[in-house]
Specification:
The complex is a heterodimer.
Chain A (H helix, E strand, L loop, with lengths): L3 E4 L2 E5 L4 E7 L6 E7 L6 E7 L4 E4 L2 E6 L4 E6 L8 E8 L6 E3 L3 E6 L1
Parallel strand pairs in A: 2-11
Antiparallel strand pairs in A: 1-3, 3-8, 4-5, 4-9, 6-7, 7-8, 9-10, 9-11
Chain B lengths: L3 E4 L2 E4 L5 E7 L6 E7 L6 E7 L5 E2 L8 E7 L2 E6 L8 E10 L5 E5 L3 E5 L1
The chains are: A mainly beta, B mainly beta.
Chain lengths: 112, 118
């Protein structure tokens, strides 16, 4: 089955700097890659997603890149702010009726 | 739109008792519901996939007789933790697949249930 690996497990950056979180997936049939932000005790919130027909997507300070050949995808957050502090999960899915498999998560801390 | 309402948000039960968690899709029909479990500081681990009107598909290592899933209608899926033990204490969360106006699909999550077994 699909396996999603995520790095780093923790990340601390200075406010205003950029943060990058990387994921790899194992199943080449995966075609949907969402990123979620989760605050303690709450549901995951979708922050951006990318499908396999594009290589990059951007939404204000957040961007995601996808390399299908290498089976890598990354989340980039620029101009980080204190409210960006949370746990971020990458995930992968193979199709419209398929389950999402989550990465292990990255705890992002923004230093003031 | 595409809201999944999950109840209860938290529950404390005694060892050996059963607990039912409900997820309702409020403004769409959820043909497929995914159930996840999340232990503290860990990722969301898929437990099972339920399809309306059919038996759930359980992930390897998940006891189907302990975690009973029912998806009898297009708007309601339930997870019952039977004979709960302290090691079942966790955050349980459901997720439904949603088809967007663009034709693309996404997933929407319930708010989660914090289960504590004492």
């Amino acid at each position: 089955g699909e396996n999603v690996e995520q790095h780093p497990s923790t990340l601390s950056v200075q406010e205003g700097d950029s943060a990058v979180i990387k994921c790899t997936y194992s199943d080449s049939a995966s075609n949907y890659f969402p990123w979620y932000k989760q605050e303690l005790g709450k549901r995951p919130q979708l922050i951006i997603d990318i499908r396999s027909n594009v290589g990059e997507k951007k939404d204000q300070r957040i961007a995601v890149t996808l390399n299908k050949t290498a089976k890598h995808f990354s989340l980039h957050i620029t101009e980080t702010q204190p409210e960006d502090s949370a746990v971020y999960f990458c995930a992968a899915s193979k199709g419209s009726a398929s389950k999402i498999i989550f990465g292990s998560g990255t705890r992002l801390s923004i230093r003031p | 739109g595409a809201v999944v309402s999950q109840h209860p948000s938290w529950v404390i039960c005694k060892s050996g008792t059963s607990v039912k968690i409900e997820c309702r899709s409020l403004d769409f029909q959820a043909t497929t519901m995914f159930w996840y479990r999340q232990f503290p500081k860990q990722s969301l681990m898929l437990m099972a996939t339920s399809n309306e009107g059919s038996k759930a598909t359980y992930e390897q290592g998940v006891e189907k007789d302990k975690f009973l899933i029912n998806h009898a209608s297009l708007t309601l899926s339930t997870l019952t933790v039977t004979s709960a033990h302290p090691e079942d204490s966790s955050f349980y969360i459901c997720s439904a697949r949603v088809v967007k106006r663009t034709g693309n699909y996404g997933y929407t999550f319930g708010s989660g249930t914090r289960l504590t077994v004492v």
